[in-house]
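Convert to structure. Protein one:
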Amino acid sequence: MSGLVLKLGPRERVLINGAVLENGGRRSRVSIVTSNANVLRLRDAIHPEQANTPVRRACYATQLVLSGDLKPEDAHLQLLRRIEELSQVFTDPDSRATLARASGALLQGNHYQSLKSLRALLPREDRLLAHRVG
């Protein structure tokens, strides 16, 4: 995760390697130069009760690794299975490419990039579920 730049709003919180940091009263930029740092923007965090769809469950499991609540080696196989299950539903080329990025990042141990890729599927999942219900 070398070279990650976070742009934080006033009082915005971020979790870095298990520690919650809160920005001051002004917008700021923070550069994370430590490779493999676990970073989770708390405004983007999915809470347990929100992990109620396949993509949200995959995102939640990935963020548990980033928060330090789940060991990467314990989550690895579970996350690969979830991504494989999602590939059975998201069959369009763009979604497949997004899932391939998520899987590739996971295989490289880059859970932040994997989560970022998975989160890109949330609007598509919402549209699919709305279409299914309506």
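Protein two, convert as well:
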Amino acid sequence: MNGQTIALLGIALCVLFCGTGSALALFKTGQVASGVLSEDGKKFAKVLILAVLPATQGIYGFVLAIIASGGVEAGMAAAEGLKILMATLPLTIVGFTSALFQGLTSVSAILAVAKDESISGKLILFPAMVETYAILALVISIMLL
């Protein structure tokens, strides 16, 4: 396997895992948000913010792919391709897992908003804390590139 193929594999896996994690999490938050809104449509704005939070990991994967693809060249050495693959791994793994767990945390927050919408501002903190690790992984992956 040549370096270009190895690098493209790392980039593709990052986009695939980050996007899949976000899609699965958004599926779950969308389900719960739909149920809450069917009972009280006035909570839309508060529920929407919590429901879309897990989308960011997919965006981070896309951004890293654009940045990393600038280092991919035809005929590059396998070692250079391996460096790009390794640099994408932090976001690939943390992006996927943090999206899933952020989705679960957002689901809990959405259900709490269903009971008391006045605490929605406080509840956003919990899924945002999970987001922190995706941001840290993105920064590390960019630094490694």
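The domain at 3-144 is CATH 1.20.120.610 (Four Helix Bundle (Hemerythrin (Met), subunit A)). The mean pLDDT is 97.
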